[in-house]
Write a structure and sequence with these properties.
Number of domains: 2
Radius of gyration: 52 Å
Shape: rod-shaped
Distance between the termini: 113 Å
Order of helices and strands: HHHHH
Number of helices: 5
Mean pLDDT: 79
Structural class: mainly alpha
Length: 222
């Protein structure tokens, strides 16, 4: 159970490069490792709770046996005061049995108590390491996302200036220039297609303008 945390240290420090080489998603892998660590902590917590319950049960039974030892001792004293030696003997014999029970239970309780302390220390260590790994995981996830974003941007920027894009832009520029040349040619052809009548028509319009101006001057309408 506790070996998993040692393996996690190796994974994060060295096997992360191996995951990247194998095209594995480090973010997903780190999330999976954290879930496994959390499951291990829950398992240890359950074991600690069970040991604590056992410790309390043994302590209670040991206390009950110790109380019976005290009770039988007092009863033996009472029997002696009553000059009932047989009853005192039987009380002391029963006391001896309770003493044996107490010694056994108390020894088991002390072992269980030590186990509980060890498990608690291990659990605290696991939780501390889990939080440290969580912080490191968050940092690695942020770095991985940043690296992915930079890679995507670099690929996009490199595709903008490639030969194919540049050639496409040049073709569009040439087409616009061709449109402009066609427009200029059409305008020149329109000017050259004017007939002799068109030119005389322009002249006649000029004469009318001059005559109209002379007439307005004569009538004082300027």
């Amino acid at each position: 159970m506790f070996k998993f945390f040692n393996r996690m240290r190796t994974v994060v420090s060295s096997e992360l490069n191996s995951m990247l080489d194998k095209a594995e998603d480090p973010v997903k892998m780190l999330d999976q490792f954290m879930r496994e660590m959390a499951a291990d902590i829950q398992e240890v917590e359950a074991a600690v709770a069970k040991q604590i319950a056992s410790e309390k049960m043994l302590k209670r039974k040991a206390n009950d046996a110790e109380a019976m030892v005290e009770k039988r001792l007092k009863q033996a004293e009472q029997a002696i005061e009553a000059d009932n030696e047989d009853l005192a003997r039987r009380a002391l014999e029963d006391k001896k049995g309770h003493e044996a029970t107490f010694n056994t239970l108390n020894e088991s309780w002390e072992h269980t108590k030590n186990d509980v302390e060890i498990l608690k220390a291990k659990l605290d260590e696991m939780k501390k390491e889990y939080h440290e790994m969580k912080l490191k995981k968050d940092s690695l996830k942020a770095r991985a996302e940043s690296a992915k974003t930079r890679t995507k941007m670099n690929r996009t920027m490199s595709s903008i200036g490639n030969d194919e894009s540049r050639r496409g832009f040049e073709r569009m520029e040439e087409r616009v220039m061709q449109y402009e040349a066609e427009a200029d040619t059409t305008e020149d052809m329109s000017q050259s297609s004017r007939t002799l009548d068109d030119e005389f028509k322009d002249l006649s319009n000029d004469d009318i303008d001059e005559e109209l101006a002379a007439l307005k001057q004569k009538m004082g309408k300027q």
